[in-house]
Every structure is written in structure tokens, then in C-alpha cells.
Amino acid sequence: MTPEHARPVSGSDLAALITALRHAGFQGEIETDRALRSAMSTDNSVYQITPDLIVAPRDSADVVQVLATLARPDFAAFALTARGGGTGTNGQSLNRGVILDMRRHMTRLLEVNVGEAWAEVEPGIVLDDLNAQLRPHGLFFAPEASTSTRCTLGGMVSTDASGKGSRVYGKTSDNVLGLEIARPEGLLSSLGQTPSWARDMLARTEAAVRAGRDAFIANTPRLNRRFTGYDLERACPTEGAFDWWRLFLGAEGTLGPITRIRVALRRIEAEKRLLVVAFDSFRNALAAATPLLAVDPTAVEVMDETVQAIAAQAGALAGLPTALKAHEGQRVAYSFIEFNGNDGLDLQDRLMACRALLAQLPGVRAIHEARDLAEIRTLWAIRSAGVGLLGKVEGDARPVAFVEDCVVPPEVLPAFVDDFLAVLSQHGLGFGIYGHVDVGCLHIRPALNIDRTEDRAKLVAVSDAVFALTRKYGGIFWGEHGKGVRGAYLRDWIGPEAYAALQGVKAAFDPAGRFNPGKLVGPRQDMLGIAETPFRAFNAPQGDPLTRAFRCNGNAQCLSYAAAVPMCPSFKATADLRQSPKGRADALRDWHGQRAAGRVEAGLEADLFKTLDGCLGCKACASACPVQVDIPTMRSAFLADYHARHPRPLADRLTLLAERHSPRVVALSGLLAPFWPLAVRLGQALTGTVDLPKTLTPRPEPGLLLTEAELDGRALPATTILLLQDWFTALFDAPAIRDAVAGLRALGYAPRLLPLRPAGKAALTLGDQRGFGRMAEALLRQLTRAADCGLPMIGLDPALVLLLRQDYPKAGLHPPDVFLPQEFLAAELEHGRVFPKASVGGQARLLLHCTESTAHPEAGAQWRRVFTALGVTLDTPATGCCGMAGLFGHQNRHQPVSRKLFDMTWRSQVAGAGPVAATGFSCRCQSERLAGQELRHPLGLIAAMVRPTPLQDG
Ligand SMILES: Cc1cc2nc3c(=O)[nH]c(=O)nc-3n(C[C@H](O)[C@H](O)[C@H](O)COP(=O)(O)OP(=O)(O)OC[C@H]3O[C@@H](n4cnc5c(N)ncnc54)[C@H](O)[C@@H]3O)c2cc1C
Ligand code: SF4
Ligand code: SF4
After folding, report:
1. 729: CA distance to ligand 3 center in Å?
2. At the N or C end, where does the chain have fewer CB atoms within 10 A?
3. In what helix (H) or strand (E) does residue 778 lie, and over which residues does it extend?
4. Residue 152 carries which DSSP code?
5. Cα 873 to Cα 577, 844, 868, 870, 946, distances in angstroms
6. Residue 950: band (very low, low, confident or very high) from pLDDT cuts 50, 70, 90
């Protein structure tokens, strides 16, 4: 019989549940938004299940309210699944019914006990956030999943996550001291008194555990990456004791929501060393794993030749020392060997022993030793980037997760890998491999095109074969990432007797099978299997403008919690998944499917429109996402389609007009200036904006603007630099133009302004693709003529230069080189140019435009080189987005997000002592309006710090 919670939910059920939740006093958000439901329908797996309702509790009392409401018989149709970072690789957090979004609000570090080295947290706290807060206490939570920037403690506990260093530090389950869970009756904590309502439930659980414990132990291999998810063995550690909470470790939400976690902490070790070893083959890197254990490393990880090649192509290996890099045509595999400790001498001995051992091993090409913490972090980031980069592979078949975390005893790893690869070759599948060889855990992702029936059949065949291989080699099929829909293998793996005990545990906590149904434990016919779970659409038709939405593989790199990481500002300000590149890509993909089928749900289109409106267009996702998902470009395609069917709002039309006619406004600025304040007031009222620039830039000084005649070939002096303006700078940023001119003159150049031709950025953003095309072609003609002068061109604003580099080629337009100022100046230094020394000030700070810091990661280093040449120490601190992003920060509806973003990283940097500059016009505007600080263009700082040299020409 189909369980009650599996019947489809009706609109009236949903409305009644929402009303009931509100009446019950639920404080968080209750959402049916279609874009959010799309965002919650995927993870890093190949599956998709769209939930009916999302609730984001504010605290554990809210979670109890949800459970108590759902316990009413009229809501028996609803399943309930908790979700953390949504980084599961096998559909762990996907389900129908209600999704409990723990990541949005339940993110607090509740208590730290430094003396006893433990902390209590809410389950939605992100691992890196926790460790950043613990660092001042000299403590850390040791299990280190490579998704540490976005995975939550609740998710880690529920999947028993682990990673680098687990041989020494153990898995998450080895580092948890107790839990609080929510029940309809209230909260149940393993660290407090057991309430009377819970006693019977726990007694039934204990009976089930004891009945199956022996069979469970007999069927689980004795490995470091032990089996969890109803761990019957450790739930009864000694005669008489019963640690019920241990059953929740690895239970993937199938026993109910966890609301509080007490974790054991470790003292941060003072010393750290990392050896990166280049091997001539992955086989040799793998074979080194067991011998290396003799020198007691904290972690040994590997990266195969395929991942190395992809990483090299993506530029991710730039940080590696030259000796480690592959030469032309060479294949290289890497081993990363880390040693941690408090005793420097002991560490040195282990390191020496390791080097001696490596000298004996075959295939070692080069060894690099890193001692500096920053370098160690950079090198590990290269290894962590591996999995995301696998998704970067072009083509319809791409590496996917389904057999990606098998564990076998390290000594049989090479033989296991040979058999595994034989299975893949039998099916003609490509793959990439990396992983934690010290504990025998390898990540292998075969490349499939999930849209093809044959490839879906291969997914099942390979899964079955690899499951059998892990049994043959005494290993575990799901050694790191949890089970998800692979839980369908659990019965065969653990045997009928132990499985019956697992069912007893499930029945005690979840008699109606409503918590994350279909996963891990349940009647066979109700399980979501690897072939039965709905697959997500994998490829768009050839050449489709939304192709990148299909490439998004849900690795969630864009959901980083860290304020100073540029991607993604709208998600960081809201912690709302639909306001992330991943969420937007999911909604776009769903919309695309419906549009192609000719029946678009009005709700989906309207909600997608809203979520795209929340995108700042910062373009971080066009550079920092492993598949360069590029939401602004897809938004443009969506809006073009949408506005072909719906009229544009007045605000859009006025913006498009303003951009198109900006050269006329510049030409008439003298005449218009007195009326400008009135025009601004009117414009703000009509377009729903605030704080628009209050003054118009006056006409440039005589002789600065290049004339048409000069563009037509009059020989200009060799020191001339052509300055390209965008329409915002030309209309409103007189100080930046003055700064740029003065700075370049101070360095001995003769800057000249190119007459303004708008680049079409606003048109592109708003999906006016015809308008964009017209403006872009006009600018391209100007740039091509200017390039014929043979003089360098510099763009005044990074957003403009990057538009030319990123977006013009996508439209089939290929402008000549336009440099960022620092690019040009750093290259000049390299070619031997000598700049005058600064006569004032020894230190300055420069805040980079976020689009620039993601699309051009060398920006900070180049500016530092330029300022060093002047004798000035320049600090370029990491900041996220300032919150302005063109018009976004001026729009009334975006004020809360815009202001919050400024407060997150910019306010403190802007307020610091010493001279501060910012490269972006938007950032300077935002700093002025929200902090009252007028930041300079960096060339202005140069002008102020260097005694101006006499002009060499006109
Ligand atoms: C690129 C990539 C690399 C990865 N690398 C690693 C790695 O190095 N090591 C590793 O262990 N894993 C890794 N994973 C897998 C994944 O990151 C981990 O499983 C992680 O612990 C999941 O955490 P999350 O917050 O994203 O949880 P989610 O994916 O949101 O949820 C995971 C499960 O936990 C349940 N859950 C979440 N919160 C709660 C709660 N409060 N109460 C009850 N149940 C809850 C969910 O229902 C779900 O079943 C990787 C994944 C990706 C995409
Ligand atoms: S948008 Fe990019 S970073 Fe975000 S989940 Fe998709 S692929 Fe990963
Ligand atoms: S452009 Fe920026 S704000 Fe928009 S989705 Fe990408 S990272 Fe987020």
C-alpha cells in the first residue's frame, strides 16, 4: 500500500498547512515560491525532486512547531526533509513535501567551552564559519570536508562527513559528543534529562538496536571510514549504556531533524608542513600510499593525470612551483602529504623520513616542501578545486557522482582501482580520480550524458559492478559522501537481520516513514533507487543561450559563507538559495524545459523574474564558478524572451534611453547642468531609485578629448595613452577622469580621452539585445580605428574592460586590446620602464571591484607591483561586492541587500586609516553615499603621491 505521505499534495492541503503553521506561531519564512522550489530540487547529484513547500525555521522552537503541525492527521500527506548546504552527491536532501531550510537562520555558534574543548552549534552553521569563530580560542573542529565553505554541521553530522586528515582525526561521528533533536512533543537532548514522552520511543529503539547489533557488527568491515547511519554498534558502547543519538550520525535526516550539536574540538597544532610530490603516473602515486603510512603523515591525498590536466587548463595550477608542473605533453599525477604537530623537531624528523622513503619509491619526479601557512592553504585549494573542475569538462558527457567515494583497505587500493577501471573501460567511460589514499578512499567520477537512456543504464550497471567490487575487497560503497538514493543497496549490504533492526530504529523514531522518505531504510517498494529517482535535465540543445544553466552541477561553490569572497553577493546577503547562481541556474533550467514544451507555469516565470532581478550582475559566477555559469548572460537571454511577450517597465525604458543618448548628454552637459538636480528628482520618482549622482561631469579640459581628425591618423606622440570611458564615468565621475589623467601624467604619459561611445552594458543587462548590438558595433568601430593608431588603450572602469573581454566575444564581437590600468603599468615595468618615486606617503589601501578580482585575479598583485615601484606599500585586502553594481544599489527595492553588502566587508575597509582608493565607479559611489567617504581612483593616489613630472607633449 502506498504510504499516506506519498500521495500528491493538493493546493488546498498546502494552503491549509501554511495557515496552520502561521497560527502555530512559526516565526521563519514559509515559501511556495517556484524558483526557490527549483533551487531546492537539486544537489550535486544527477537527480531532481521538486518539493512542495520550503520552511526556514529561526530556531529549534520553530522546528518543533513544524513537527507538531505536521503531526496533525490532516497533514499526513507531507514528508519532511531537513536541508543544510545541499552539497550531497546522491540526492541526500532532495524530496517532495516540506524542506526544512536550516542554512538560512539556524547558523549560530551557541557555546564554546575552551577548557573542555567542545562547542555547541545550531545545525545550519557552515564548517568554515565555525572554524573561523573558534580560531581565536586556538581550537578547531577537525573533520574537513572539501565543501567546507558551504557544508553545514547538520549536513556533516547527518552524512558522517570527513576528508583530509581523517586517518588521524576521524570522521564527524568520531567528533560529536551529543545532539538535540526536535519532535512534535518538544526537544530531546542527549545532554539533558530525557522527557517522559520520549522514554517509550527510546525503549523501542534500544530493543531494535540490541536485536540486530551482532549481525550488524558481523557485516561491517573494520575500517577507519566505518559505517554510520544507524550505527547499531556504537549506540550500545558498553553493557547497559544506550547512546541513542549515535543512530542519527549518518542517518541523513531519516530519523528527524537535528536542532543542536555538541562537537568535540582539537587544539590547533602549531606546526604544519606539506610535501607536494609529482609522480610520473597515478599508478605510482597510488602505490606509494601504503609505504607512506610508515612515516605517520596527517593526510595523504592524490590527484590523477586527468584532473591535473583539467586543473592546468583552467589555470588552477598557476600556484604550483615550476618543478612540479608538467612539461609540454607530459602526464603528471600529484600526491599531497601533510604533517601536523606541536613539536617542530619531531615534525622535521617525520618529514626527513618521508623524503628518504620517497627517494626509494618509483616514479617520483619532483618534491616541493611548503612551510608557510598561506602557501599550504593555496596548495590544498588546488587539490580541493579538483572535483569542481571535473564538472568543467565540455561536451554532453560529463563526470558525475554515483560511485565516487568507495573505501577499501589502503593495501588493496591499487588492485581495487585496476578492477574499477576495468569496469569503466568495459563501458567505454572516461573518468577523473582524486582522493584520500591514506584511508583508501578514492573519488572517481565517470563521464556520462544523463539525458541518454544508454548512459542511464550504464550508471546502473557500473554502480552494481562497483558495489560488488567493494564487497570483494572488504570495503565500503559509501565511504565519505553518504548514501542518498544509493541507500537502496543497504539491505543487500548489511544483510536481512541487521536491516530488520535498522527498520526497527526507523519505526521507533518515524513510524509513518515521513522523514526523508525513500532513503536508507524503509519497505523495499518505497525506496528511491539509483534508477528510479527522477534525473535532472543534463544538456540544452546545441547553441542554446541557457546552456550554462544545464552545466551547473550543484557543487555549490557559489554558496560560500565567507563575506570577503566575491561569489555570490546576493546569496551572502540573504542566505536564500534562490538568490544564488545555483538557484538561478536551477530555475532557468526548469523554465527552459517548460518553455520548450510550450507551457510555462505563470508562477515559475514570475518567480524566476524576481530571482533574476535580485542578481547584482557582478559576474563573479562567470569567472569563479567551475563551469562559469554566468547568470547575467542568461538573464539577458531570458529578459529578451520575456520582453518580447511583456512590455518593459518605464524604469527600464528610461535607463535604455539614458544609455543610448549618453553621448548627447555629455556634449550638452554645460547646458544641462543647472537643470540636473531637478532631472534627478524626477528620474528617481519615475524609476524608483535613490541617491542618483547629483552633478554632471563638466566638459573635459581643452585638448584632452581626442578629435575625430586625430582618430583618423594624425600622428600622436609615442607617450600617448588612449583612455576609454564608460557612460557612467563620462556623465558622473569627473574626479575619476581627473585622477586618471593626473596619475598617468605623473608617470610620464600623455593621456587622451576617446569620445564616449556607450558600450551597451545596460542594454545587455536588461535583455535589449538589439540595442546592445547597435551600441557594441559602434564602439567596436571606434576601438578598431583607435587601435590603428598603434597606441595603448586603457579602460577607466574595470566593469567596462571586462564587458569587452567577457561579453563582446559571446556576441561574436572581438574588440582590440583594452588594458586595465594596472595591467598596462605592470607590463611597462616588466619592459624596464622606471617610474618616479612617490614624494609623500609610504602606505595606501586599494579596494578592488569584485568583477575585476574574480575575472582578473592578478589585479591586486599588479597594482601592488606598480605601487612598490613608486616606493609605496599597497594593501589590497579581500572584499566582497560593495553592493552597488551599477544601478542595483540605487533601486529602492534593493536597498536592504545593497546596504547589508556594504556593511559586510566594505564599511570597515573604507573607514580604516590612511589613503584609500577603489578601482570601480560603483564602489566609489557606494562608499560616498553610505559612509560619506570620497575614495579616489588608484591613479589619483599615484598623482597625489608622486611629484607630477612635466608634460612631455600636448
Ligand atoms: C564538490 C564536493 C566535494 C565534496 N567533498 C566532500 C568531502 O571532502 N568529504 C565529505 O564528507 N563529503 C564531501 N562532499 C559531500 C557533502 O559535502 C557532505 O556530505 C556534506 O556533509 C553535506 O553537508 P550539507 O550541509 O551540504 O548537507 P545537505 O546536503 O544539505 O544534507 C545532507 C543530508 O543531511 C540531512 N540533514 C541536513 N541537515 C540536517 C539536520 N539539521 N537534521 C537532520 N538531517 C539533516 C539532509 O536531509 C541530507 O540527508 C562533497 C560534495 C561536493 C559537492
Ligand atoms: S552555479 Fe557554478 S558554483 Fe554554483 S553550484 Fe552551479 S556549477 Fe557550482
Ligand atoms: S552575477 Fe553576481 S550576484 Fe548575480 S548570480 Fe552571479 S555571483 Fe550572484
Report:
1. 23
2. N
3. helix 769-788
4. B
5. 40, 6, 6, 9, 14
6. very low
Burial of 409 (0-12, 13-18, 19+ CB in 10 A): middle
Q: In terms of residues, how long is the chain?
A: 954
Average pLDDT on 720-743 reads 93
The answer, yes or no, to whether any atom of ligand 1 lies below 6 A from the CB of 397, is no
**Cell representation of residue 841:** 606617503
Report the separation in Å between the CA atom of 621 and the middle of ligand 3, taken as the mean of its atom positions.
6
Q: Are 695 and 675 in contact (CB under 8 A)?
A: no
Instruction: Report DSSP state, residue 891.
Output: B
Q: Give the three cell numbers for residue 927.
A: 562608499
Residues 6+ apart with CB under 8 A from 238: none
Cα Rg, the chain, nearest whole Å: 30
**Assigned C-alpha cell, 855:** 575575472
Across 57-66, 232-241, 567-576, least confident range = 232-241
What is the arrangement of strands in the sheet containing 98-101, beginning at the earlier edge strand? 29-31, 53-56, 98-101, 80-83
Number of the ligand closest to the Cα of 802: 3
Closest CA to ligand 3's atom 4: 615
Burial class (CB in 10 A: 0-12, 13-18, 19+), 344: exposed
Which run of H or E residues covers position 875? strand 873-875
CA 594 to centroid of ligand 3, rounded, Å: 24
- CA distance to 35, 210, 614, 699, 859, per residue, from 936 (Å): 40, 71, 29, 20, 17
DSSP class of residue 408? -
Q: Which helix (H) or strand (E) holds 794?
A: strand 793-795
At 775, list the grid cell.
Answer: 551600441
Query: Tell me, what's the pLDDT at 698?
Result: 83
Q: Would you state the cell numbers that stand for residue 511, as one nine-digit string? A: 513510524
Q: pLDDT tens digit string along 620-641?
A: 999 999 899 999 999 999 999 9
Digit-coded pLDDT (tens) for 424-462: 999 998 777 887 877 888 888 899 999 999 999 999 999
Residues 6+ apart with CB under 8 A from 474: 221, 223, 408, 409, 412
391 lines ligand 1 (CB under 6 A): no
For 286, the grid coordinates are 597510488
Lowest mean pLDDT among 224-228, 272-276, 321-325, 945-949: 945-949
- Give the integer Cα–Cα distance in Å for 206 and 200: 10
Cβ of residue 570 lying under 6 Å from some atom of ligand 1: no
Q: Which residues contact 105 (CB under 8 A, 6 or more apart)?
A: 28, 56, 57, 58, 59, 124, 575
Contacts of 108 (CB under 8 A, 6+ apart): 121, 122, 125
DSSP per position, 594-612: HHHHT---HHHHHHHHHHH
CA–centroid distance, residue 818 to ligand 2 (Å) = 29
The model scores a pTM over 0.85: yes
* Cell numbers that stand for 216 in this block: 550488524
What average pLDDT does the chain have? 92
Measure the N-to-C terminal CA separation of the chain; round to a whole number of Å.
89
